[in-house]
């Protein structure tokens, strides 16, 4: 039985993935700060763990718990993250540091901790939730995009580092996903613009994101769909290095490669400012 560790498993993609994998015979350890949110998963055999990916002691304790019980970790799904939207000028560097600590250094920390065990067994998979936002910059996406572009580079580097040890690394690049992420990003965006020259536009764009998620726009996918992609990446004999969740996601990434920067700037702004 494969042993899976999922970070950021208290809601959204992480929760749906834990649920799906447990139902399909995997031994799942679900890590998050809000352990109470994962209680229902116990009925499926999932083991909830208190895990803060920004805290070294918390991360080490989670890994130790799994190794002591199972003797191995076959798959790490680096999923913990959030969106700190707002104009670069207005978002404090303390908040920027927090965004990078969770979204980037959290991935690095958890990967560093599991790799010695995966190397020892000459096998393992690391799957990372990135985003289309790691390839394409949206209007007022700020530090979130900085973090996801970094996650792409970090994952590429890990993949090349560990290829000789039988370890595979795959990146998941979703577009919008129906999770708490949307409302959190919108709140960060609106708060960042208060009492500033950006106040009017940040409120307008935040309202756009709230409506997009509330109305379940066709641009927003069910987290269960992402969970199926993660399962595919785990089970594939030769997993892809990247998976997107939709044609719009693939089209956006292709356009980012082909279209001029100024055209993309205008298009991304016009998408959210009607």
From TrEMBL:
The keyword tRNA-binding does not apply. It holds the Pfam family adh_short. Keywords: Oxidoreductase. GO terms for molecular function: oxidoreductase activity. The keyword Oxidoreductase applies. Belongs to the short-chain dehydrogenases/reductases (SDR) family. This is Short-chain dehydrogenase/reductase. It comes from Xylocopilactobacillus apis.
């Amino acid at each position: 039985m494969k042993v899976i560790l999922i970070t950021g498993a208290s809601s959204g993609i992480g929760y749906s993935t834990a649920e799906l994998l447990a139902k399909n015979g995997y031994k799942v350890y679900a890590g998050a700060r809000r352990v109470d949110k994962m209680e229902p998963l116990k009925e499926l055999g999932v083991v909830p763990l208190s895990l803060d990916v920004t805290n070294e002691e918390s991360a080490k304790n989670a890994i130790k718990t799994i190794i002591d019980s199972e003797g191995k970790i076959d798959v790490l799904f680096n999923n913990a993250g959030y969106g700190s939207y707002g104009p670069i000028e207005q978002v404090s560097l303390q908040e920027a540091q927090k965004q990078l600590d969770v979204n980037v250094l959290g991935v690095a920390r958890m990967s560093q901790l599991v790799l010695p065990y995966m190397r020892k067994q000459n096998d393992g998979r690391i799957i990372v939730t990135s985003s289309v936002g790691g390839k394409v910059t949206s209007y007022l996406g700020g530090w979130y995009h900085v973090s996801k572009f970094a996650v792409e580079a970090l994952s590429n580097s890990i993949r090349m580092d560990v290829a000789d040890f039988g370890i595979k690394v795959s990146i998941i690049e979703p577009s919008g996903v129906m999770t708490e992420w949307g409302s959190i990003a919108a709140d960060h965006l609106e708060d960042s613009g208060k009492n500033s020259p950006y106040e009017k536009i940040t409120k307008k764009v935040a309202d756009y994101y709230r409506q997009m998620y509330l109305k379940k726009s066709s641009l927003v996918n069910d987290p269960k769909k992402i969970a199926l992609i993660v399962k595919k990446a785990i089970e594939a004999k030769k997993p892809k290095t990247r998976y997107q969740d939709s044609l719009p996601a693939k089209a956006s990434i292709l356009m980012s490669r082909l279209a001029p920067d100024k055209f993309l700037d205008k298009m991304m702004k016009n998408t959210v400012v009607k």
